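Q: Protein A?
A:
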Amino acid sequence: MLAVYENEIGWRAELALDYQRRGARTVLAARRHDGPLVVQKSLYPEGDGVCHSIVVHPPGGIAGGDDLRLSARLDVTAHALLTTPGAGKWYRSAGELARQSLQFDISPGACLEWLPQENIIFNQAHAEMRTAVRLAGDSSFIGWEICCLGRSGSGEKFSRGNLRARTLIERDGRPLWFENGRLEGGGAALRSAVVMADRTVVGTLLVASAKLDSTALNACRALRPINGAGAATLLPGLIVGRYLGASSEAAKNYFIQLWHILRLVVVGREAIDPRIWRT
């Protein structure tokens, strides 16, 4: 049951998407939403097989007390790519937590790509991001998150507030990846050489597929971001890409290059950048 309301502590909104394969075409068979979280019409820039959807949050930012929930279910052999039209802005809060929850259920033979624009965590924001990916059989997932701590372009530092992030990926009920972290504004971890090392942008790319191997890993490791540091690691059924630096553009460009390599391995399709990224 979807529910939304607005009161003195913020918005509650949900968006649930259901993708199905009908012949050669992936379609958005059902969408249910309440509140300021919607999806635009289906796009097919690479033919019928892949349905591109743009997830839009019309208020333009997430404030303290907001609770946004996005879920997507992919039926057998469906293929969907979800992205966003612009950076996600997490506004300063007097103390209320702002939440974003993602839940993706991917059936055998299906593939979901979650490729949002970067998150900008304002100073004094209290942000929580939770992602749960449930894979079945030989399904696959490609996704990333990029976070910018403070608005460095205007000289703002992330000196107060906090960012909490939790990601779980499992296949047939068995965990492939679990990460749970918290960064405090102005805290020691922001300066620590083994955490943020005084950098302001951090990103993680996760690709889950049984087709990943050392050849794919070596191709990823041959890439370097235009600035900052990047790395890739191969785990059983999973490649993890990391970025740490001072540029969200460099992080995104690096992840796009990794995506171009890994998508071909995972689904046998050349990557086609969503047009919204160029507008």
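Q: Protein B?
A:
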Amino acid sequence: MRTNRLSQNGFLIPRVFLALVLVSAALFLALLSFGANPSTGSIGPTTPGSLTWLGTGKGGEADPSGTLGGEDTCVDGQNCDVYTLTLTGTVADWSGRKARVDIQWGSASHDYDMYIHKGTVTGAIVSSSARGNTKDESAEIDPSKPGVGTGIFVVHVVYWDVAPVPPPLDQYGGTVTAVGATVPNPIVPPPLPPGTATMSVFPSPPK
């Protein structure tokens, strides 16, 4: 009888181990599905070129009710996803430098928003870009600012209003580039000085 029990246990142990491996793999793939492709990247103050990634969300509306911010209601892997960025080096290494994060897509009829968090997706927001009627968003991470520094940041991209059908989805692409601290942002120009004259065009009133 002892031999039979050992034989049975020897048969069951590999099956239990295989089941655990399969469950772990499924959980790992589920976590990956919430992230961009690739899901992580590292950049230093003198890194040449740019890091790039592609969104993997399925689209939709982040907040159909319009009562809350899209980031508060979106679901990672569905209508938002994450890219984990590491700024290497120290704050002193980044003196006179900053990281510029851009996302771009095909049609201004779609709307993406971007929030950059310190540490985790629920960490403090250090920069953001949430304009409308554009085909891009851009934000900057300046390590010299209080509470920013270097280390891990999470770029949280919200599919605020991106039609999931018909295919193909107007998917966004992201880039991160280390630039000089005084280099102007080509996507988001600086605000006009107070008192600057501007011109607006209004439609004629109905007759």
